[in-house]
Amino acid sequence: MPDSIDYHALARDIKEWGKELGFQDVGITDLDLSQHQASLQKWLDNEYHGEMEYMQRHVDLRLHPELLHPGSVRAICVRMDYLPKGALFAKVLKNPQLGYVSRYALGRDYHKLMRKRLKKLGDRIKAAFADTDFRPFVDSAPVMERPLAEKAGLGWTGKHSLLLDSKDGSWFFLGELFINLPLPVDEKQPEQCGKCTACMTICPTQAIVEPYVVDARRCISYLTIELQGPIPEEFRRPMGNRIYGCDDCQLICPWNRYATPTDEGDFAPRHQLHAPELLTLFGWDEATFLQQTEGSPIRRIGHQRWLRNIAVALGNAPYSEDIVTALQSRQHEVSDMVSEHIAWALAEQAAKKIDSQRPSQQIKRLVRVIEKGLPRDA
What we know:
Blueprint: H1 7-20, E1 25-29, H2 37-45, H3 59-63, E2 74-81, H4 89-93, E3 100-101, H5 110-128, E4 134-137, H6 145-151, E5 156-157, E6 163-164, E7 172-179, H7 198-202, E8 208-210, E9 213-214, H8 220-226, H9 236-239, E10 242-244, H10 248-251, H11 271-274, H12 278-282, H13 286-292, H14 302-316, H15 321-330, H16 336-357, H17 361-372
Parallel strand pairs: 3-10
Antiparallel strand pairs: 1-2, 2-7, 4-7, 5-6, 8-9
Helix pairs in contact: 14-16, 15-16
């Protein structure tokens, strides 16, 4: 690179260009992640990655990101907010007849959108300096996004292992542009969780096994998205009506009081996924599922796992003849794995039917009070 380049001025320009492209924040860091080697290896040794075998592959690339694009010396890290307006968190989570979809998945898949904009940012830099070489990343390679973004000053790591920003909480996506320019790096934000453990306490399955460490095998997001096979029974009731992902640890976080809803049109909720009736979703055949989830991250789990997740939610719903009929109608037309979850849901519904036919404790107490005031032969 020519010595005449004013890298400080260029860094300021890059941040401005990034915001013009729709990124809410832009930071720059070097690629040294050696300090994360021990914690990553311990996490893998504990098998907290579950079935995510890809986490074990290319550990060297994760710890030495410069190998992913030789010649790179910096990562330009970006943040894009996704919190939708009118997120309806409480309305959906409190209604067991509805299915809860993690708010990040309500709109279009963010991968292509962010990658295209990072490419535009790289092209703009290259237009100014022809010798620029870059490569954009958005979940497209073994990149440790959160540690890089933390070093770039986009936030600090919360005890739920997500990145937190003091101005906007954690409702945002991350992306990176690896580049060969020795740009000045930004400073990290100070850790500001303090003694708060709200995220650890609220987790329905107690997946945050210690501060900053998540056992994916217990996490509802992992169970509903990454897990290929059956969901362990111990986690089915805690799942409630969460059918794709879980936002509980973000919802409880005090820093998310400051989150700003996004104006990004592509992240606006799709009506059919925003507050959907579980029975309606369970009725989708595969063609309908593919049509309704076109361009959505949900599509990647496939129709069978979609039905698996909804079957669990239906089992957790209050007793309903309509639910029982719907479950029975699909039991013999799905995979063995899904059929097993339907059988579990039917058993849960049957137990609730029995409970619903028993007098409530309040009624029992009322009967006892009445009986005490009546003659024995009454």
